[in-house]
Amino acid sequence: MTMTVGDAKPPGGSPEPRPKVLVDRLSVEYDGTPALKGVTLPIFRGEVLAITGPGRSGKTTLLRTMNRLIDRTRGAKVVDGTVRLDDSDVFDADADPCLIRRRIGMVFALPTPLPKSIYDNIAFGPRVAGTRDSDRLDEIVEKALRDAVLWDEVNARLHDPALRLSGGQQQRLCIARALAQQPEVLLLDEPCSGLDPISTLKIEEALSALKRDYTIVLVSHNTQQAARASDRTAFLLMGELVEHGPTGQVFTNPRDTRTADYIEGRFG
Amino acid sequence: MTRWINVEVRHRIIVAGLWSAAAATLAVLALIIGIVLWNGLPMITWSFLLEAPKEMGRAGGIFPAIVGTVAVTLLAIIVATPIGVGSAVYLTEYTSESFLTRVIRFGAECLSGIPSIIFGLFGFIFFVIQLRMGWSVMSGGLTLAVMILPTIMRTAEEAVKSVPESYREASFSTGATRWQTVTQVVLPAALPGIVTGIVLGIGRGVGETAAVIFTAGSSLHIPTSVFSPARTMAVHFYILAREGLSMPHAYGTAAVLVILILAINVTANWLMLRFRAKTS
Questions:
Q1: CB contact under 8 A, B174 and A125
Q2: Nearest to B71, CA basis, from B220, B196, B200, B229
Q3: Which terminus in chain B has less CB density within 10 A, N or C?
Q4: Residues spanned by the domain of A210
Q5: ipTM of the complex
């Protein structure tokens, strides 16, 4: 697992670097109903990409396709195109979905702590990947909790059940759990949708610190959050990628009128 | 339609009727436990619990029957739990709804509807005679295992099904395999329900007479191996009462049996509460 801080290139710098993840002409259907229609979207190393758009526009489907969680959705089918992670095809016949999910961590819209202690939640990923050494696990757990800005609140009670934490703390725990598996890419699916403004602020604070070390894809229907937190923004509408580009440009000078309409709150 | 009785009175009659039904349920339970304990408790002494029976059970204690009950039931649970939980996990986690899963469920349902005397007969023909296990703890335990298997399987299946999908998604998203997800997330979360099924199974096994009398036998000796014959408390009670050997000893045995079943239920409940407190 490589953490490539050193060769992170500033997004938008030219010439364009090779994408870390490339969504390539991707079309996905649910029982024959199209959910994504020929989406092509590069995600560059070390950037925060916001994916925004109204409900049911395919944002979550796009994330779940990247780490192949879509395999578990009944009726879902990738009908065309693929996702590339570095040089490999995520849907290749010999690609191991477990390994892909280790490299592409995910945080869901609602906090999903496992019914285990705080410590065991964070150590879950490293343990299933084969880390047994307890000193090493202690180290990983502490670093992940610090990176998710949760350490100070929970370090005295690491062995309490994670389900006793507040909603905002649970969500930061889930971020820490994803970080502990040392992913290269972090997918965040509306991570603040169920949270109050203060918790939202804390999560955004954690994200801005994480930008340095990870490639982050942030799904948010909240355009302000997308504008605040991201380097580039992609706008999805009814399964179609309307446009993507540097966040400043997408928000101030969108190429497509549909993007402008959404950002200005005329629909969605 | 003439209203021959006013609404308020009618409501009260309905409530009183339903209350009586609920009270009757509880009263039957209290009556059974009361009669058994009233007649049996005076018999229970340390020597009754720890001594061997004398004169076919007319005198002495019931120690071999206690050992026999525990041995036969324990064997049944050890055999039935992995098979029952395994099939529940297969049905819920490893396959999707299909003709096969419906056949398996239907089979389990039929199995649980078969009268226990039929299981006894089956065990006698198959385990005792065909497989030459003779009257033994093994034959009795395996017969009981077959009998309680559907109970354990169906409760385990319900328990596994009720584990929130978000736990599985969270586990898979960290890169866990299906097996890791099942063993480290799903089964621990389903444990309270699974244990409930096991306790129900123990309850059925401990009190079973017809299925074990033909298979475990009715030896009054303490079983020394799984291939020794054994007598369970329920069988002991049945023989004492039927042969008119000693009603007081029969009631004493019944009281021990009832207390044992209550103790198992209370212990299982307590364990579950402790387990829940640790995780949530």
A1: yes
A2: B229
A3: N
A4: 21-112+186-263
A5: 0.89
